Amino acid sequence: MKKTIRDLDLKNRRVFIRDDFNVPLKNGVIRDDTRIRASLPTIKYARDAGAKCVVLASHLGRPKGRPNPEMSLRPVADRLAELLGVPVAFAGDCVGPEAENAVRNAPPGAVVLLENLRFHPEEEKNEIGFARALASLADAYVNDAFGAAHRAHASVEAIVRLTPQAPAGLLMENELRYLGGVLEKPERPFVAVLGGAKVSDKIEVIENLIPRVDRLLIGGAMAYTFFKAMGKPTGRSLVEDDKLDAARDIMRRAQERGLQFLLPSDHVVTDKPEPGVPTEVLNVDSNAIGDRMGLDIGPVTVAAYTKALRDAKTVVWNGPMGVFEIDEFAHGTIGVAKAVAEVQGTTIVGGGDSIAAIKKAGVADRITHISTGGGASLEFLAGRTLPGVAVLPDN
């Protein structure tokens, strides 16, 4: 395990916390504050531990190394103040005089949020001078941004090399404990549910999970690459033709291991992914799909996946079963979400779409751990070393 914020004496010290406030933002309105809420325990811990000032930093979006008002963190400061119940000062830059003055003039126990780190190209370049400027704002550093841990960026990697003590925050600790636990010592049966659009996004995850899980349930558009590899009709469904051999290899490896590898047996097909369009449920072997596309798993598949989840003791779910943003194609994803929520064991849900799905299904409060990691969660489950984790000191 990594050292955590609990191992640090924060009394009368300025603490720099790298958070992940990369939230969906449109016209200055935060559409989902899951990541902001997930950061609260570490911020509160620092304040309760007597920190002189809590300095928060994050990226948001991809502003390409220059200021972009549409990706400002100012709305996050406002939301943080509401959730914390204390004022949150906002610095219009993350380095330089504006940041320095905001921190220097902060009253005891204050919270200061810096402007988007990626407004500076040096952040993504992992530039040591930029990291030094960030480090100079505080006496201690804590990384609580698991969602950015797969990036070797200045505020995640270089800054740790400049800081004698650089522990993980409580969110980071939770992510490593739950995700690490399912890879190392999961309670069985261990079931993985993987969906989403592309097999290419999940190949390494699937390959890393095949030796570990007892059942692997596949849904979403990625299923159609497997179908085509098996010679089944796919119509105009999304297929990655350059991944057909990879799909065949995955199925071969699953069979060799005796793994229960479940693909949809029926699906919801239509002409186009729009609300109100006519739909039909077909067996996946049916040529009646014609030139239509499959956009959700069907009711027979939902029932089969629900049965496969019923006795599970550990479940990892990443990726929706269909185009769940449109109600006509949300039944499969919501059905699986409800089945995961019924599991009497450890349930871990990751990925923005999957998190949105459990919220849409009204079962978020029945999930053991909601991972904020996104791409970092996938890379961790794929067995990759995350630079932002590797650099943190071990306990």
> In what order do the strands lie side by side in the largest sheet?
10-9-8-14-15-16
Number of separate strands: 16
What is the rounded Rg?
A: 22 Å
- Percent of residues in helices: 25-40%
Number of helices: 15
Q: Care to describe what's here?
A:
This protein is α/β, with parallel strands linked by helices. It has helices spanning 34-48, 74-84, 97-104, 121-124, 128-135, 154-161, 170-184, 203-209, 223-229, 244-257, 299-310, 331-341, 352-360, 375-381, 387-390; strands at 14-18, 25-26, 29-30, 53-57, 88-91, 110-114, 140-143, 190-194, 215-218, 260-262, 266-270, 280-283, 293-297, 314-318, 346-350, 369-371. A 6-stranded parallel beta sheet has the order 10-9-8-14-15-16, with helices on both faces. A 5-stranded parallel beta sheet has the order 5-6-4-1-7, with helices on both faces. A 3-stranded antiparallel beta sheet has the order 12-11-13. Strand 14 (314-318), helix 12 (331-341) and strand 15 form a beta-alpha-beta unit. Helix 5 packs across helix 6 (154-161) and helix 12 (331-341) crosses helix 13 (352-360). The longest helix has 15 residues, at 34-48. The protein is elongated and about 70 Å long. The termini are close together.
Layout of helices and strands:
Elements: E1 14-18, E2 25-26, E3 29-30, H1 34-48, E4 53-57, H2 74-84, E5 88-91, H3 97-104, E6 110-114, H4 121-124, H5 128-135, E7 140-143, H6 154-161, H7 170-184, E8 190-194, H8 203-209, E9 215-218, H9 223-229, H10 244-257, E10 260-262, E11 266-270, E12 280-283, E13 293-297, H11 299-310, E14 314-318, H12 331-341, E15 346-350, H13 352-360, E16 369-371, H14 375-381, H15 387-390
Parallel strand pairs: 1-4, 1-7, 4-6, 5-6, 8-9, 8-14, 9-10, 14-15, 15-16
Antiparallel strand pairs: 2-3, 11-12, 11-13
